Amino acid sequence: MKAGFVEKLIGRLGKIGPEEVQNYFLRLAQEKGFLETVFNSIQEGIIVTDSKGRITYLNDAACQLFGLEAEDSLGKRLDERVRGLDWNALSREGAVSRDMEIFYPTNRFINFYSVPLVPPVRGRRPQLQANGSDTRLFCATLLKVGAPNSKRSNRND
User: pTM above the 0.70 mark?
Assistant: First the structure.
């Protein structure tokens, strides 16, 4: 979707008919559905949070990796849903990469990557920012499934 599309649509609402408004909203829904399909087809867990650490988006892989239900998690703090995660420390840092062991729903080792996002500026693509951003993107990649007698990883990159 091009930058400014919604602003242009709102500006034209009084000048267009109901059928055209319906077509615009159908187009928005199709584009959202396409992006949702893309994010749910990748194996990495993706979670987006707001400035207070509340989950605003998560894909199917994130739900599977962390044993979450999307409907129950949206609007909740990430550190309430992912035990052992220190949101306050993460939100003060720029890009962070950690290996961590999770025990629910099964014992797994994952790499957890967190980076602040900069809101898009009109005419430019969204950018990654060193720190101080309100929105954070979290990606989790499965490294291996732990065995019952596996050693715990304490590695911090």
Answer: no
